[in-house]
Design a protein that fits this description.
The protein is globular and about 45 Å long. The longest helix is centred in the C-terminal third of the chain and has 21 residues. Helices cover 40% and strands 19% of the residues. It is α/β, with parallel strands linked by helices. Helix 1 runs parallel beside helix 9 and helix 8 runs parallel beside helix 9. The chain has an eight-stranded parallel β-sheet. The chain contains nine helices and eight strands.
């Protein structure tokens, strides 16, 4: 049952995150779930859901927007920004200057300051989005100059099939990057959220200090 799976994930998150004093927020990834499967989450106290694709998000939006805060967690094309700028609470996948500029433009047009996370390609995988660790501080400083952006933290997607020791090492490096960014205290940049970990490794992400995990298949089976 969904309730049992949610409870199990939350229990593991609480156990693994004890040294950090709070469990990561559970973002239920709903890309393969129907509206009827998603709606019961609200009764279980899960109010944050993540969608990967703009088109799918917009199809579900009329049925979900009053009950949930919707996160855009997938790769975002610049020409799709205008379709979600008013409807999502957080964009997790900011990873290039052109996208930052378009989010800034559309956010100002919509009269809002758009909360975003900067995606870091922590394992340097050529097929994945995200900036490199070396680019992180210059990119954050560039983002800080855009009035329509509100950088709230960092996001990462880990390599599929990696050994758990390697995964934990990558998660720990992301937490180190997050902490260094917080210590740098760049004007206009907030380091509040570290979004990392999915169904296969959310426990390791929580252990390493994630503040958000994105879990889909462990909830919807």
């Amino acid at each position: 049952m969904l309730a049992e799976r949610v409870a199990q994930v939350q229990k593991i998150l609480q156990q693994e995150s004890l040294p950090f004093g709070r469990a990561p927020k559970l973002i239920a990834v709903t890309k393969f779930a129907t509206v009827d499967q998603i709606l019961p989450l609200a009764e279980l106290g899960i109010r944050d859901i993540g969608e990967n694709r703009v088109q799918v998000l917009r199809e579900k939006l009329p049925f979900l927007e009053e009950k949930f805060s919707i996160h855009l967690i997938g790769r975002l094309q610049t020409n799709k920004v205008k379709y979600i700028i008013k409807d999502v609470c957080l964009i997790h996948s900011l990873d290039n200057a052109a996208l930052a500029q378009e989010i800034d433009r559309q956010a100002q047009k919509a009269g809002r300051r758009m909360p975003v996370l900067v995606q870091v390609n922590i394992a340097n995988e050529p097929q994945k989005g995200g900036i490199t660790e070396e680019e992180l501080f210059p990119f954050l400083r560039d983002c800080a100059r855009l009035p329509g952006l509100q950088v709230k933290g960092l996001m990462a997607i880990m390599p599929l099939g990696a050994e758990r020791d390697e995964l934990y090492s990558l998660f720990a490096r992301m937490r180190q990057n997050f902490d260094r960014c917080a210590q740098e205290a760049i004007d206009g940049i907030a380091m509040e959220e570290l979004s990392m970990g999915m169904s296969q490794d959310y426990d390791l992400a929580a252990r390493a200090g994630a503040t958000m995990v994105r879990v889909g298949s462990a909830l919807f089976r």
